[in-house]
Amino acid sequence: MIKDIFFDLDHTLWDFEKNSALTFEKILAENQVQIDTSEFMRTYAPINMALWKKYREERIGKADLRYQRLKKTFKALKYPAKKDLIYRLSDQYIEHLASFNHLLPHTQDILEYLKPHYRMHIITNGFQEVQERKMRQSKIFDYFEHMINSEMAGVKKPNPWIFQLALKRTGANPRQSMMIGDNLEADILGAKALGFHTIHLNVHNDPLHDHGYMIHSLSEIKSYL
Which residues contact 97 (CB under 8 A, 6 or more apart)? Predict the structure, then answer.
């Protein structure tokens, strides 16, 4: 019944947490910021997630997201970071993030398994200039026929328009499509509202729900497709 599979990218295939930590380790050292990377990431991760939620909901823009996530992290750590340092780190983070290419466990294996049987696409809220580089650097770009991103759509998941645009670009039927992603609100509920089938890769310890299949490892996709 399923013909088209739509994947989210960050936290679903591309190991955002690991690659982000490696990027910060590099740029903090290069800018002589005397903060332990592990301590920085423990503070940064929930701040970044909360600001991404605001970004999805159109309550802040891209520039605010990039600046505020660092400003709030340094403030929480009581580190005296000036504006020019925050802007420089923000630019360097985007510049270097795609140079690290770790994928979540079983990504390559599951894409090889699915490729002969389904058309595969990406729907991402990530920034346009970064997402393609991530996919090329991690050698998964050629598995996918289309990549639809929020800057292209002018809205972000879970806004229905980005899913409608994905269906239009790919010629897919939502009733014969599966959305696989890590974010319950953006990926699962957003796609389900358009009639997609869904698989929730629960990497954030979200509570159980009945909005679609739930898995904890990409390898479990083989049980459903």
Answer: 19, 20, 23, 130, 134
Average pLDDT, rounded, for the chain:
96
In terms of Cα–Cα distance, which of 188, 199, 189, 201 is closest to 225?
Answer: 199
State the Cα torsion 58-123-201-180 to the nearest 10°. 130
- Those residues whose C-beta lies under 8 Å from the C-beta of residue 117, and which sit 6 or more positions away, are 225
Listing from the earlier edge strand, what are the strands of the sheet with 119-124? Answer: 146-149, 119-124, 4-7, 177-181, 197-201, 213-215
Is residue 99 within 8 Å of residue 137, measured between CB atoms? yes
| CA angle (176 as vertex; 175, 179 as ends), nearest 5 | 90
pLDDT tens-digit series, residues 124-164: 998 787 899 999 999 999 999 999 999 999 999 999 999 99
The DSSP code for 57 is: T
pTM of the shown model: 0.93
Task: Count Cβ atoms within 10 A of the Cβ of residue 206 and give its class: 0-12 exposed, 13-18 middle, 19 or more buried.
Answer: middle
List C-alpha distances in Å: 39 to 161, 192, 223.
Answer: 38, 37, 38
